[in-house]
Amino acid sequence: MSLWGTKKKDDDQNESEGAETGEAGSGDMPRSSQDSSRRREPTERDRLLPSHPRPPPHSDGYLDPDDPAVSPYNLWTVRALRFFSISFLAITFIWWVLLLVSIFISPPGLHTRGSGFFDFSYTTLTAGLLLTSLLFFSAPSLAIRVSQGIIAVLLLVDVIIIVSVSRIRNEEGPPGIASVVWATVMAAYCVLTDRVVAWGKREEEERLTGRPETRRTLKEWLAILVATIILVVYAIIAILMTATLVLRSRDATLAMDGERIFVDGGKYQVHLACIGNVTQDSNGNTTPTVLLEAGEDPSEYDFEHWAWNAYQNGTIDRYCYWDRPGYAWSDNAPSPHSAGMTADNLAEALAVSGEEGPWILVSAGYGSIVSRIFSARHFRNVAGIMMVDPLHEDLLHRIGSPMRGFFLWSWGIISPLGIQRISGAIFKGRSREDRVYGSEAYQGGKFIKAQLQENLVAESLTKSEVASARTIQAMDTPLVIVSSGISVRRDSEWERKQKDLTKITGNLVSWDVVNKAPHYVWKTYEGRTLMEKRLGQLFTGAVNLTLTREEEN
Question: Using CB atoms within 10 A of its CB, is residue 199 exposed (0-12), middle (13-18) or buried (19+)?
């Protein structure tokens, strides 16, 4: 239909066609361009309609409501908002890429002491909001604005939680705070944009058709339905993230033994605790302190419990335990982070806290890799080594496989939703202890990030570090190996590597295979009893070794 409802010949015809395409003075345009403009709906790239077009004769001066020229894009305000939306989406995408990269390699200034998954999730949500706003830009509706408003309010609550809870604020750091604030601002901006477009649509309908349109086409209804469904999904995501933050703020109040110590130039903190007092033997020499290095779980989960029993029984005088970066109360380290870097973190934390040793290193699983590197780098201060079903460096490929890494990354990306943690807290009565260091610790973003870091460098940096450690290990250090009977029977390669680990020093005290014990040997009574017995023997031998080394010096 013609914009003016009639056409003239010659010059009048050109003027009428120019008005149809939404252009002032468009008579010099090629006819093909004018026809193309009439066949499609206008966009922000089309020329604006004149503010007060000259009404043609034989017409009431109004357009048909279905005419494509009746569009909010006729207003500079609407066009500017669309331009800003595209610009904001581009900025968000660049920030999203930087955060994605920082999970694997932390650029300067982008390291967070938390997992890095929360800020990535907020940025992803921001990109989704802006993209949805752009895709359905010309179909404003109250349902869309309400959904966007709910998301904005939830994100504002997240900002308040992150800023007000010191532990979360420190973990998220500037990148996390900037990401959630940007998400909140963009959600509010999307509400404003939809409202302005709705206003512009009504204004143009009144100006060009004489009344605001009260009906919608099927295409418009479908667009509104799809946009609303997408935004409802975003709102559910925002609700879950807010609930997860509430749990994190609750977990931050859990008391701990020991202290958190800044390491690596003050970039992050690790948790270290020591039980018992420093004692001396009859010759005035400091007796060894047992230093625990847990396997695949935080030390507090159950690995520290059997050491506590040994301390209560008088088998040992004192022990210390800590959490590797990302475990329990410790912050995440920048990526990449290898076992050697972890060993250096432990040494720094001990030095800062004034702990001098000598040490009897007791480790399990992957933690044995860290203990071996620590022992090699501080062999003069290590009086004994006890490894419980330890991981051999030739088997690091089992935790360093690309498939496992992809699974950990995927699990980390959705960890801010906290579906399992929320359901566990509501329906299963899971406590703060369960989430921080207990049975559900593996669901936390920090723990997942730590596991991912171990995976990424297992067959490169870590394997090289432990291979070097083996060549400089003190050969007179007493060594005890306790292996899982189930693991040995099930895996012949594991058995061969356990036997090989008995040779890392030249002073093997014993190698025991606990018949019915799983990988976590201390979970069985027989395993705990044997471990405590061997630790007592190692403690006695360590005292003698300390005396011998002092006499040699």
Answer: middle
Please report, for residues 100, 460, 466, the alpha-carbon distance to residue 401 in angstroms, rounded to integers and kept in the order given: 20, 12, 18
Q: Mind listing the pLDDT tens digit for each residue in 42-55?
A: 666 666 666 555 45
For residue 58 the two structure tokens come to 């034989």
DSSP code at position 391: P
Task: Quote the DSSP letter at residue 322.
Answer: E
- Among 159, 173, 179, 185, smallest CA distance to 99 is for 179
Has residue 79 got a pLDDT over 80? Answer: yes
Rounded-to-integer distance, Cα 432 and Cα 11, Å: 80
Rounded CA separation 46/40 (Å)? 11
Q: Strand, coil or helix: what is 481?
A: strand
**Does residue 380 share a domain with residue 500?**
yes
Residue 372 CB neighbour total at 10 angstroms: 27
Q: Say if residue 336 is in the same domain as residue 288.
A: yes
Q: Which of 379, 309, 317, 318 is nearest to 347 (CA)?
A: 379
Instruction: Encode pLDDT of 172-211 as tens digits.
Output: 999 999 999 999 999 999 999 999 999 988 888 788 887 7
Sign of CA dihedral 494, 495, 500, 502: positive
Looking at residue 41, what is its pLDDT? 66
Say if residues 457 and 338 touch (Cβ distance below 8 Å): yes
292 close to 319: Cβ distance less than 8 angstroms: yes
Structural domain harbouring 189:
73-251
Long-range Cβ contact pairs of 213-221 (< 8 A, separation 24 or more): 213/65, 213/70, 220/139
**Which two three-digit tokens encode residue 519?**
């990988």
Whole-angstrom Cα distance, residue 132 to residue 527? Answer: 58
Nearest in space to 182 (alpha carbons), one of 144, 210, 155: 155
Structure tokens at 315: 């088998």
> How far is the C-alpha of 96 from the C-alpha of 98, rounded, in Å?
5
The whole-angstrom separation of Cα 119 and Cα 108 is 16
124, 183 contact by CB (below 8 A) = no
Phi, psi for 261 (deg, rounded to 5): -125, 135
Which of 229, 251, 273 terminates a domain? The answer is 251
CA–CA separation, 86 and 106 (whole Å): 28
* 364-395 pLDDT, tens digit each: 999 999 999 999 999 989 999 999 999 999 99
Question: What is each CA distance from 192 to 140, 199, 475, in whole angstroms?
Answer: 11, 11, 71
- Check if the beta carbon of residue 300 is closer than 8 Å to that of residue 315: no
Q: Among 465, 460, 452, which residue's Cα sits nearest to residue 104?
A: 452
- By the 8 A CB rule, do 322 and 349 touch? yes
Whether residues 299 and 359 share a domain: the answer is yes
Burial of 10 (0-12, 13-18, 19+ CB in 10 A): exposed
Instruction: For residue 415, give every residue at least 6 positions away whose Cβ sits within 8 Å of its Cβ, in sequence order, or none.
Output: 115, 117, 443, 444, 445, 448
Q: Of 251, 283, 300, at which residue does a domain stop?
A: 251
